Amino acid sequence: MRSPVLSLTWHLAKSSGRRGLQSQLLAAGAAAVGSFLLLVMIAAALGAGVRADHTTWRTPDAVPAKRATAVQATTMTYVRHEPVTVVNLARLPGRETTPAPPGLTGFPKQGEVYVSPALAALLHKLPASQLADRFPKTKSYGTIGAAGLASPDELVAVVGRAPGDAAVSRTAGEQSYYDEGMSERAPVSGFSGTKASVFTGTDQGTVLLGVVLLVVPVIVLASAAGRLGAARREQRLAALRLAGATPRQILAMTAVEAAGVGAAGALAGALAYTALLPALAELPYGIGAWYTGQLWVGLPWLAAVVLAVTALITVSAVTMLRQVATSPLGVAQQANPRRTRAIRLVLFIAVLVYIWATTGNGGQLNPRQLIALLMLFYGAFWLLGPWVVDRLGRIVGRRAIRPATLLAARRLSDDPRGAWRTVRGLVLAGFVAGFFAVSTLSFEDPGHEGQVAVITANAADARHAATEARTALHRAGVTATVDVTSEDDYDSLLGGVTGVIAHVSGGQEAIDAAVTALTPVRSGRYPFTREYVSAPDDTVIARIATVSTATLVMSFLVAAASAGLTAAANVLDRRRVYGLLRLAGTPLKVLDRARIRESVIPLAVLAGGTTAMGVFGAMQLNKAAGTTINTSGAVQLVICVVVGALAMFAAIAGSRPLLRKVTAGPAHTAD
Prior knowledge:
By secondary structure, this protein is an alpha+beta fold. The chain contains 21 helices and nine strands. The protein starts with a helix and ends in a 9-residue tail after the last helix.
């Protein structure tokens, strides 16, 4: 016998009227947003890894001298504060042919220069005395393809050298403590490196940190879609249950309806992500924009996200029907307030004790352990939230004086899970704000503005290099004073290394011209500025700052959207109660104030708790990184919380016209 579930579900969906359609459209919209954001986060995490992989070929993997077919020396130089990666390659005579580097059609011959498209544009834009003269003279530049680049904005040059050229000699490979991750030389037989560039190596880790902190608010938004129209669905299915429908049929009807709406919304979000890939690729991160292919997650991930969002919405809707299946009469009469148990508090305290013991033992945690603890914290607070809301409702109800406060307290205690769903997005976003506002890393600025340094082997070479430097700078028209440093001089950019320091006047253009003019002074090694010295630390700080800003903005936007969506759904679900209150003489203004206070009361308590927890997590991160708390972040934290709260209240206020509409006439009470 054919099951009537599908036909009955379709009939009920069609006959649900305009308000039922509104709930379904809101649910589909939330599913679309959730699917889109999840795909964007996955794309950023996977794309950051792909970008890092595209830079590994530049870090040479040394092979035994007998097996080497070429010499590779990779270094960095700066122009307009931007890093330029220079890969010097020299074929060893009498050896086998070395394969072409990624992005090149062949191994570069002596004197050939290949540049990335972004560097080619910069070479044409800037005077030769500021950039082009750092490379060998050539009639035309070759082009490095996308296979050898991490970003279309990356500045990279590959230079063909003779085996005896100073740029690839052993002296060029002599390391100072400044050079770690910036300059390296080795005999090679290919380009299968495994170490990513210092400018891309930390990208994926910081993106994953942001994803972990943002994924929970996105899940909150998606799960809210499954609970839209919950009260209406409960009443309808409770009537069917009393009419003889089995619990299995009730659950099946709910699952089919929620899955259909969720799948449609999730698929729309996936299509939007696909259509917007070119626009998403233009968003800069780290070294610049993305290649579109780097952000394409592939069909398996696309299908997995659509299925996951659909399953989340379906499970969220089905879990609301446990009481319908067991006590349909109580649901129909709205007789059983949904109380919470104190076991939630016990479990929450146990989780906090575990996290405190794990992070407070003085040991450093690896990224996976930190991510696991963050997820554990989120789960614990998700469990505790309804219990706190329930208790707040009872406490406020006993002390309420005004009607709006009394109504809000009654709603909090009657349906703590529903009230928690309205504020949980912003409550969890408070943790993100507390975490990132205080964990902004900062390292000591090396200073030394306007200094250009040249390292030499000894004091005699330094004195000779100083004479050459003065001549080269004068010829280039750069105003500068040149000093010789020694191993005992720690107040200069060289910091205890023998060499020459040029103190340049005239701004960044003069500094770039000085670097170019001093390049021949120490053949085989580019002069460097303060950016070269602080690049590893500055890169980490910049990535965390970018991810923190993006995560904060997205967290509060998603939280506000979730709050507005849930508020609109609550109005639709409670239209019968609101209609009866209006018929009893309750002013619309009182009902609206009750809705606002229903959000403000738990938000003030719970958001403060999660924000404090975020600050604690930031302190642990700062402790692991060996840095101090960013005290100026307190101002940023206050701004984030205030703006987030205002955004949430604005989203809730957006459903005020809907409240006025559903309580406009006595006919609505017949629902």
